[in-house]
Amino acid sequence: MGAARVERVGDGLYLADLGPLDTYGWMSTYIVVGTDSLAIVDPGPRVSAETLVKLLESSLSTSRARRVYIVLTHIHIDHSGAVGDVIESLPGARVLVHPRGVKHLVDPSRLWQSSLEVLGDLARDLGEPRPVPPEVVVSLEDGATVDLGGLRLLAIHTPGHSPHHISYLLEPSRALFAGDSIANCFNGRAYPVTVPPFSVPEYLNSLKRMVGLRPSKIAVSHYGIVTDDPEVFIQRAKDKLYAWIYQIEKLLSRGIRDPETVYAEVLREDLELAYAKYLEDSTPTFRGATYRAIKGLLDYLLRSGAT
C-alpha cells in the first residue's frame, strides 16, 4: 500500500492519487471541500480503501465538514470498490449513485461476478467490494443537486460507457467530473472508454449534453484534469470513436469478426491506442484496457447488425 499523492487543482478541489497496486497516474479520486460539506468523487478500488481512509482521517481532522458524501460516477469496481470499507470510517456519510447502481452496492455479488468475467485476475487484484448498508445509499435522478456549502454538484446522467453513469458539474467553477463518460487521457493522448456493454447513441447524446453544459475544465477518472479546451477534448473523443467505427466496419466488410484480430488491426493503425497499450504492458492496473475498449465497440456494432 502506497501513500496518497494530493494536488490542489481548483478552489476547494483536490486530486488524490491513491496509488492502487502501486500504480500512480492511473486513477483519479477527487475531493471537493465546501464550507460545511466534503465530497469524495470515485473513491477507487477496494485495494485503495485503507490509503483513502488514512487520508480522510487527516483531512477531516482539520476540516469543518459536517457532512460527507461519497459520490460515484458509476459502479465499476475501479471506481466504487472501496465504498464498503470507507463508509465504515465515516459515520453519517451518504453514498450518492445512479438509481440503477443502488442494488449493486447493497449486494455486489452480480457486480463482482461480471467484474471477474471482464477483468479476470485484475479484478481479484483490485479487490472484491463489500456490501454497503442500504440506509446510507442515495439514488440521484438526472438534474439532482448536492449542496456542499458555497459549492454545488449538479448530477447529469451520461450513459454510454455504462447505463448507470453520472457526470457532475461543480458550481460555480463549472468543473466537470466526467468519470469514464468521455475518454481516458494519459499524457495528452485520449481514447473513448468503449468497454462492454457500450452504446454508441447514448454515448454521443451524453457528449452533446456535456458540451451544452459549457464546462470550464474536465476532470476524468483516468487520468487527471484535461489540459485541452473542454469542447475540443469532447470533439477529440467523438472523432476517435468515428475513426474506430470506420476501421472496424471495414474489417467486418472483409469478414473479419474475431475480436483479437480486429483489435490487432486497429492497434496497428492507431498511435494513441498503441501508446495506451505501451502503458498497459508496463503497468498492472492497465492490463487488458485497450482490448476491452475495441471489443466493446465491436460487440456494439455486431449487435447493431454491422457486417
Give structural notes:
The chain is of the alpha/beta class and 307 residues long. The chain has a single domain (5-230), classed as Metallo-beta-lactamase, Chain A, CATH 3.60.15. The chain has 11 helices and 15 strands. Strands 1-2-3-4-5-6-7 form a 7-stranded mixed sheet. The chain has a 6-stranded mixed sheet with strand order 8-9-10-11-14-15, with no helix packed on it. Helix 7 runs antiparallel to helix 8 (230-253) and helix 8 (230-253) crosses helix 11. The radius of gyration is 19 Å and the shape is globular. The N and C termini lie far apart (47 Å). The relative contact order is 0.12.
Number of helices, counting only DSSP H or I runs of 4 residues or more = 11
Sheet with the most strands: spatial strand order: 1-2-3-4-5-6-7
Uncertain ranges: none
Order of helices and strands: EEEEHEHHEHHHEEEEEEEHEEHHHH
CATH class: Alpha Beta
How many individual domains?
Answer: 1
Number of strands: 15
Structural class: alpha/beta
Q: What would the average pLDDT be, to the nearest integer?
A: 95
User: What's the CATH architecture?
Assistant: 4-Layer Sandwich
> What is the CATH superfamily?
Ribonuclease Z/Hydroxyacylglutathione hydrolase-like
Largest sheet: 7 strands, mixed
Net shape: globular
**What is the strand content?**
15-25%
N-to-C CA distance: 47 Å
- Helix content estimate: 25-40%
Based on CA atoms alone, the radius of gyration comes out at 19 Å
CATH topology: Metallo-beta-lactamase, Chain A
